[in-house]
Amino acid sequence: QVQLVESGGGLVQAGGSLRLSCTASGSIFSNRRMAWYRQAPGKPRELVAIITSDGTTNYANSGKGRFTISRDNAKNTLYLQMNSLKPEDTAVYYCNNYPSLNDWGQGTQVTVSS
User: Measured between alpha carbons, how far is residue 3 from residues 9, 21, 76 in Å?
Assistant: First the structure.
């Protein structure tokens, strides 16, 4: 049984910040790579950031320097701190393993207005 629950999205103006959270079952989270993905309307889902079980991070160019991925292993929780948001960041944001499982949560909507 797997479960992924994203939260923290919302509507912000360009230049603003959001902190996204993801809670996952232990079978997904424990000792596994985790990642944030996003999907804009009419576009394919894309990888935005990845973190290993011990905290090594990697970022797509789209968020590099603005986004920070982190995790709390004791809480089975993944975070994405998003600063200096741009309208191009508007998307539904999802968390999952990396490589991703076939099952996805509902995601959380991030909308950035200009």
Answer: 18, 14, 11
Q: Give the pLDDT confidence score for residue 91 in this predicted structure.
A: 98
pLDDT given at position 109? 98
Query: Number of C-alpha atoms within 13 angstroms, CB side, residue 83?
Result: 6
Q: Provide CB contacts within 8 A for 38, sequence distance 6+.
A: 45, 46, 48, 89, 91, 92, 93, 94, 110
Q: How far apart are CA 33 and CA 64, in angstroms?
A: 19
- How is residue 39 written in tokens? 């999907």
Give the pLDDT mean for 77-89: 98
Give pLDDT, residue 2.
67
